[in-house]
Amino acid sequence: xxxxxxxxxVNFKGNSELTTEIDHQQAVGKAIDLVTDFIQKxxxxxxxxxxxxxxxxxxxxHTERRFKxxxxxxxxxxxxxxxxxxxxxxxxxDEDGDEVDTLHIDESFFxxxxxxxxxxxxxxxxxxARFAEKLQQMxxxxxxxxxxxxxxxxxxxxxxxxxxxxxxxxxxxxxNPSRIIPGWDLFYLLASHHCIISYDKS
Length: 202
Fold this sequence. Notes:
Helices cover 38% and strands 26% of the residues. By secondary structure, it is of the alpha/beta class. Helix 1 packs across helix 2.
């Protein structure tokens, strides 16, 4: 079961040379079912008032491969607004001849929106918190974040998805107090039960 969870996330990301296109499409389909089911059970009819935003990858091609169809299907099934079109990339070649993608966000799109964030895997939680803070500075209200899994070290330079791991508010504060985003929860969907990070709403 643990390896199935690893494989699902690896295949969803689609970066591994061992991931075939069929593996990737199957993983995306499973993720769509997981996320849709969770949102429908957790938010019910209020989901239609939310905007679903997948946190873009650093590269345009990875963002499109992972999130374009995924976000479309999740939003179609749940009635949420899809934020995918609000993200775009420009490309340029650096001094080493490598292509570099730069993310652009349509700030006007997020103004006044209630946003549900999604990422495939969480490490420390800092990147999610920083992205949430960025959207809130644009006038959005981040109400929660979802992730397929939580990455921790297993001591062998590998990735492990801990079934019972749940970040605490104190842990986040020790990483960087400025990354505390009040008022939102973080759910890991591949835990044996849903792990939740709850912040004070005051």
